[in-house]
Write a structure and sequence with these properties.
Layout (H helix, E strand, L loop, with lengths): L2 E11 L5 E11 L3 E5 L6 H7 L8 E6 L2 E2 L5 H7 E4 L12 H11 L4 H15 L14 H13 L5 E5 L7 H13 L3 E5 L3 H7 L2 E6 L2 E7 H5 L2 H6 L13
Parallel strand pairs: 3-8, 3-9, 6-7, 7-8
Antiparallel strand pairs: 1-2, 1-4, 4-5, 9-10
Helix pairs in contact: 3-4, 3-5, 4-5
């Protein structure tokens, strides 16, 4: 069995003394779509930022795509792990959508022709073909979300790590994004409060609370365990007909 991510006793404390991760261990198999859920302050975002070396653990080990996450491996790991932040504006900073999606491939040193091909493919994949000349700040919230995903897909990553991908989206934009996520072939680790999203596309769910793994198992079993969810500040998702 090939693991995309393998964490062992991962610990991290911020400079102010906040212990964000307290011995986190889990594995993600290549091709899995895994949800990471838990209350605010549980350590979800902190964990995600370890996966391409933005943060470094104080203790424990972390392997991504078979490589230990350390200075020597960071360029390779960052080419294989695409991080989509909670706020799309954190990833969209160039004058046009084309420039944003081309930014990563250009900095990989790829020739212009391949950069254009990657941009076209990524925009087609997220439904933004024809948006190349648009200014990112003129896009709708849903368009910004998928444009941010396109900036990562243009790098051809093996793993996509997403922080609250459906946050603040209206119903139509959320449905389109869920359809996109369900179609992606990459390994996905999705931190979210949207348990409806989790129920639809994640076969496995990890509950993180107070920097520790509180539960890890099949999504159907975890979402059906109302007392477990309640202990960790979560509510079962609404039935499909009632979701918005």
């Amino acid at each position: 069995m090939s693991h995309a991510i393998a964490a062992r006793d991962l610990a991290f404390t911020y400079h102010d003394g906040t212990a964000a991760l307290r011995g986190v261990s889990f594995e993600v198999v290549r091709g899995e779509t895994v949800a990471l859920v838990g209350p605010n302050g549980s350590g979800k975002t902190t964990l995600l930022l370890h996966l391409n070396g933005i943060l470094r653990p104080a203790a424990g080990t972390l392997h991504v795509c078979g490589r230990s996450v350390g200075p020597a491996a960071l360029p390779e790991i960052r080419s294989k792990v695409g991080v989509v932040f909670q706020h799309a504006d954190d990833q969209l900073f160039m004058p046009t959508v084309f420039d944003d999606v081309a930014f990563g491939p250009l900095h990989m040193g790829l020739p212009p022709g391949e950069v254009r091909e990657r941009v076209a493919r990524a925009l087609e994949q997220v439904g933004l073909a024809g948006f190349e000349a648009r200014a990112p700040h003129h896009l709708s919230g849903g368009e910004k979300k998928v444009a941010a995903i396109a900036t990562v897909l243009s790098m051809s990553p093996q793993i996509l790590v997403m922080d609250e991908p459906t946050g603040s989206l209206d119903h139509r934009s959320r449905r389109r994004l869920i359809g996109l996520l369900a179609s992606l072939p990459q390994t996905l680790l999705i931190a979210t409060h949207d348990l409806g999203l989790v129920a639809e596309i994640c076969r496995r769910t990890i509950i993180l609370d107070a920097g520790r793994v509180a539960a890890d198992g099949p999504t159907a079993a975890i979402l059906a365990d109302a007392p477990l969810l309640a202990r960790h500040g979560l509510e079962p998702p609404a039935p499909p007909a009632a979701r918005t």
